[in-house]
Amino acid sequence: MTEMIPQLFDPLAQRRNRQRAAMTYANFAFLKDEAALRLADRVDLMRRDFDLCLDLGAHDGRLLTHLAPLGKIGTMLHSDPAVAFAKHADKPFIVHDFANLPFADASFDAVFSCLNLHWVDDLPGLMLQIRKLLRPDGLCLTNLLGGNSLFELRAALIAAEQDVTGGFSPRCAPMADIKDVGGLLGRAGLALPVADSDRLTVTYPNMFRLMADLRGMGEQNAMLDRLRQPTRRAVFMRAAEIYQTKFGRDDGTIPASFEIITLTGWAPHESQQKPLRPGSGKTHLATVIGGDDGDDLKQG
Question: Looking at the domain that runs over 11-298, which CATH code has it been given?
Answer without folding.
Answer: 3.40.50.150
